[in-house]
Amino acid sequence: MNHPVVIIGAGLSGLYAASLLVEHGINCRVLEARDRIGGRVLSIAVSDRAESKQFDLGPTWFWPQYEKVIAGLASRLNLGTFEQYTEGAMVSERSLNGPPQRLVLPEGSMEKSMRFTGGVQSLIAGVEKTLPLGTVELGKRVTSIRFDRIGAITIKTKFANGKKEEVQASAVILALPPRIIAQHIEFSPSLPTDVMTDLLNKPTWMAGQAKVVAVYDHPFWRDAGLAGYATSWVGPLQEIHDASPVQGPGALFGFFGMPAAVRQELGEDQLKEMVIDQLVRLFGPEAKNVRSIFYKDWSNDAETAVEDDSIPLMDFPAYGKPPQWEEWQDKILFAGTETSTQFGGHLEGALQSAEQAVAEVVNLKNNFYRKESDSSG
């Protein structure tokens, strides 16, 4: 293994894979098309007097009672965590003809979930700190991967300014959404039909979604005995949760129930106005006093979504690894939450898939040096 292992994608899975490779003493490079790390992890900072609070526009929670990898990683990185606020009544909105219903859920009806004190971006930053300086290379879009007869892997990249570069690799870990891989990267030799079909049929988690966060001076709904949790058949948001930090301002976040095409037709400004109107209906007139409001439509993110992702998921997809194929075997490995069978769509799935990919690389390395030793002996 004379060349580095190249990881394509600097989201959680790609960064964690790099961290694990470094632990094993394996040289690696991480190529990222964006100008930032994190992928679908995106935390927005809002200044609160002397402190800066983080609000997540991507994934928010993890469940340590089931998800042992992320719980262990958070502990090793000394990241602050706290339990999602669920005390009080929920609000349910079924029509505009009457006031929303206030419901008290039975104790234990909501699973305990945890959040990161510094937003999920603190997890990304913590993993990045375990990497040697220069491991992650931003603004490098991979356009093709070529594997020749003598076993050499050549990766072609393109910068935003049009400059191109070729990178040599001993193996490649693809830590990207499957549909992005299938539609944005050219393979030579071509991927088998069943592999390409599998990649194209895996919806990208969150890619059809948009998320909004409304920030307030304090979590006023708690004073009224509300949990900040609401569901709505009216919209524009279909599900709302308390997004407040441990101390400081209050915040509510919600997921939209409308398709991407409708969101794009309405536009961000109108959607924000509709969101505030809905929050007033659900939580009272104080909800109009928004300090800041942030919006992220993942269907507009070209590094996340393709056209087929524009319709929000209604059911949980069947995720897992693509089929194996002989020609590219041991050369191309897959990571990312969509390749995890048990925790697909979760941060835990991104981490577990990275562990599996790195385990395969370590096995390749051991086999390589075993063969070298046998041939020299």
UniProtKB/TrEMBL annotation:
Stored SUPFAM superfamilies: FAD-linked reductases, C-terminal domain, FAD/NAD(P)-binding domain
Segment forming the signal sequence: none
Family per similarity comment: Belongs to the flavin monoamine oxidase family.
InterPro entries with a match to the protein in the record: Amino_oxidase (IPR002937), FAD/NAD-bd_sf (IPR036188), Flavin_MAO (IPR050703)
Protein name listed in UniProt: Amine oxidase
Span of domain Amine oxidase: 111-361
Pfam families: Amino_oxidase (PF01593), NAD_binding_8 (PF13450)
Gene Ontology molecular function, alphabetical: oxidoreductase activity
